[in-house]
Design brief:
alpha/beta, two-stranded parallel ribbon, 327 residues, 39% helix, binds nicotinamide-adenine-dinucleotide
Length: 327
């Protein structure tokens, strides 16, 4: 099987490509990011082809014509909630038009199935918790809207052209980020500040809960979804809500340090609680998260400590803007 992964050089994409290669399948990456900054490009692996192409561009068709993939995982996206609010056209260009372009090529070149990275952001402010897939979609940000539009296009292409699909709504994904982007998750920012001996910034009272899911568990679910036959929409989360204050306690336990959070006024538009019900995904994908939050955080802290021993790597660590957005 040949799998084309858009956004394959990114945070979730890098882990996903590793998983597919572990199963000895061929991979084609389409990603227009700066590869020099990332370390995800599997060097020397001849079964991985790489195209620095924008998913919204005409050149995407050349990649499909050349590679003829059997299945597609579509992860490439404008991923910042904040950026979507300041640059809605750019967000829609990549997340809506880019997705429609990918779908058009899938149909034209006979792709059997597409797995799409959607987001808990499509739900907006939850009416009940945990959030099941049947919960109303009322996205609050342009990012949430563009993800929702992508979902609807995929379903329409599925009905009209028989393209198989799995739409995965990821919760807040955390884990080792080898490349820093503008808006990283709150856990990345916490770990960075912890190791720099800086206070952890909390916007609001810290009681807001999020459903944190480790990137390796997300990659596993994504690869499992390649092989299912039914078209479906699935939440990929831990089914557990953890408050930021609880995260601080976990980090205290892990590091043995006394941590004093620094409280700031709540960010406007930040939602109170988000927990995704993962029951449907467990059944449909024969999948369950393997990492507890403690274990995932421990891997992150150990990795970041290693990085800090290497002066060449330290150079590229810029402190990220912390965000608790549901992206
Ligand atoms: N990280 C999370 O918490 C989270 C949560 C929910 C959903 N998602 C979704 O999962 C997917 C992957 O997210 P991530 O966290 O790995 O983000 P990321 O920014 O690390 O990866 C996205 C990749 O897409 C590439 N890309 C962006 N625009 C492109 C374009 N126009 N053409 C080609 N490539 C392009 C980037 O270079 C990057 O490598 C995204 O669709 C995101 O919306 C992520």
């Amino acid at each position: 099987m040949k799998v084309l992964v858009t956004g394959g050089a990114g945070f979730i994409g890098g882990e996903t490509v590793k998983r597919i290669r572990e199963q000895d399948e061929q991979v084609v990456i389409v990603d227009n990011g700066d590869m020099r900054e990332g370390s995800h490009k599997p060097e020397g692996d001849k079964e991985v082809a790489y195209y620095a192409v924008d998913v919204a561009s005409k050149e995407l068709e050349d990649v499909f014509a050349q590679e003829r993939p059997d299945r597609v995982i579509h992860l490439a996206a404008q991923t910042s909630v904040r950026r979507s609010l300041n640059h809605p056209v750019e967000d829609a260009q990549t997340n809506i038009l880019g997705t429609v372009n990918v779908l058009e090529q899938c149909v034209r070149y006979g792709v059997q199935k597409i797995v799409f990275a959607s987001s808990a952001a499509v739900y907006g402010n939850p009416v009940h918790l945990p959030i099941a897939e049947s919960h109303a979609a009322e996205p609050l940000s342009f990012y949430g809207m563009s993800k929702w539009a992508g979902e609807r296009y995929i379903q329409a292409f599925g009905e009209r052209y028989g393209l198989g699909y799995a739409i995965l709504r990821y919760a807040n994904v955390y884990g080792i980020r080898e490349r820093r982007t503008g808006e990283d998750g709150v856990l990345t920012a916490f770990v960075e500040r912890l190791l720099a001996g800086l206070p952890l910034d909390i916007f609001g009272d810290g009681r807001q809960t999020r459903d944190f899911i480790y990137v390796k568990d997300v990659a596993d679910a994504t690869v499992h979804a390649l092989r299912t036959n039914q078209n479906q929409v699935l939440n990929i989360g831990s089914s557990t809500g953890t408050s930021l204050l609880e995260v601080v306690d976990l980090l205290k336990e892990l590091s043995g340090r006394q941590l004093q959070p620094q409280f700031h006024p709540a960010s406007s538009g930040d939602i109170g609680h988000s927990i995704l019900d993962n029951g449907k995904a467990r059944d449909a994908l024969w999948w369950e998260p393997r990492y507890t939050l403690y274990e995932g955080l421990r891997e992150m802290v150990e990795f970041e400590m290693e990085v800090r021993k290497n002066p060449l790597l330290v150079e590229r660590l810029a402190y990220s803007e912390a965000s608790t957005s549901v992206i």
